[in-house]
Amino acid sequence: SASEGQLLIGNEAQTGLRDDTRIMFQDARLLPWKRVIANVALGLPDDQRAAARVLEQVGLGDRGAEWPARLSGGQRQRVALARALVKRPALLLLDEPLGALDAALREHTGQELRRLQRATGAAFVMVTHDQAEALALADRVAVLQAGQVVQVGPPRQVYEKPATRFVAGFLGAANLLGAVLRADGLLDCAEAGCTLRAAEPLARPPGSTVSLALRPERISLLTEGEMPATNATTGVLRGLAFQGAGWLCSVALATGTTLRVALPGTAVPPAEGVPVLLHWPAEANIVLAD
């Protein structure tokens, strides 16, 4: 039972798991001595038609007679999902359901989860430590720190406007900087060795310390060009990693700070050790609450 607060399902306070609530674990936990359709029908032993119907929904309509051992990891997870959905739950709790799958299967199964949620109308609550997975699948993301919810909102909003340093660093590994607000509204950032301009005026007195997040993909990297007056600094490219969809660059500044810069995969980055100019738009400076 809850130690404080309330759990509401359909505006009704709950004291325990209802009959129309189901849980799907990271481990599929199928019974190896039962065939696939019998595993799915555990919740409805007298209605194999419902089990067959939900197997069709998860794309395994032709595998009902198989033994679990003959299925791939992704197929076993879909059987576990079918078992959870067969009684048409109002709420499905998913505990790291894709964690045991490889990258390709994780993406495919995740999209299947999203499609099935739309088709069934059930509420899905998924726990995951994979930030990209949360952003890609959720309608709303809740970020927890030390057991406390620190921010809730649509994925894009939480990513683009993180409330705290923790959220900014956890979702997308933003560059975190400190700055001091000047009387003219600009920010002196000793860590980046430059002056920053935010997109909107800050309702704080001059001299206030401000925490900022700067997403790696918002930074442009040039080997030559005129230095802008704000939101620009210079450094040396010290690290370069190709990640398929893009490049992750590490740029060492003269201040001792290292900034992460993300470039698209089609870009041709300079060689390591080359001096570079970094600059970014004012709206890329995300002002944090802490």
The percentage helix is 10-25%
Q: List the uncertain runs.
A: none
Indicate the structural class.
Answer: alpha+beta
Give the strand content: 25-35%
CA(first)-CA(last) distance: 33 Å
Shape designation: elongated
Tell me how many strands there are: 17
- The ordered string of helix (H) and strand (E) elements is EEEHHHEHEHEEHHEEEEEEEEEE
Spatial extent as radius of gyration: 25 Å
Count of helical stretches:
7
Strand sequence of the main sheet, in spatial order? 10-9-8-11-17
Average pLDDT over all residues: 88
Main beta-sheet annotation = 5 strands, antiparallel
Mind explaining what this structure looks like?
The protein is an alpha+beta fold and 290 residues long. 22% of the residues lie in helices and 30% in strands. It has helices at residues 36-40, 48-57, 73-85, 103-120, 131-137, 155-160, 165-170, and strands at residues 7-9, 12-14, 21-24, 91-95, 123-127, 141-145, 148-153, 175-181, 187-189, 194-196, 209-214, 220-222, 232-242, 246-253, 258-264, 275-279, 286-287. The strands form 5 sheets. The protein has a 5-stranded antiparallel β-sheet. Strands 12-16-13-14-15 form a 5-stranded antiparallel β-sheet, with no helix packed on it. α4 (103-120) links the parallel β4 and β5 (123-127). It is elongated. The relative contact order is 0.09.
In brief:
With 290 residues, this protein is α+β, with helices and mostly antiparallel strands. Helix content is 22%, strand content 30%.
Which features characterize this protein?
alpha+beta, elongated, five-stranded antiparallel sheet, 290 residues, 30% strand, single chain
